[in-house]
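Posting for a labmate who doesn't have an account.
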Amino acid sequence: MKTSPTYAFAIQYGLGELQFEMQLAEALIFSNMANRMMASAGLDFAEFRLQMWDMLANSIEAGDHLKGGAEANAVAMGTAWLALASAMHRDHPERDCFVLKMGARPGDIGVEIAADNPYAEAHEERGQIFAVANVTREMFDEDTRLFRNWASGVQAEFAQAANDPGA
């Protein structure tokens, strides 16, 4: 039995990460739904991308991905569209893994994205930089491993500082 091709997604935000896989056909359906939303709203591509990043960030902050149903589908749709409509995917359409990085807000700890990154997208209202990396499976595994190691190191430093009030 032949399995359907899938895309792997990781969304890195703050010290957290969300990972999931989606069949290619489902990702295309979600992406097309978002394209129809963009057309019916009369927004240009750049405006819609910022709205999608905003929706995705707000949904993750609200824990919508944990709720299931329409909320989880909105996260999946936003993720699929941002990934498949990304400049890096246009540059590397053969790759089937995406890492969506949601940069830290000023004063927060989280993902750091260089402003001069050619794939970075600044969201001035949120004070964040976002980026989509379209990578190979090996690069995906390495990037998520490095992110998890970094995040657990930061969390360990917080725990140590909390247990050592004299520090």
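Reply:
Got it, the structure tokens are right above this. The longest helix spans residues 137-163.
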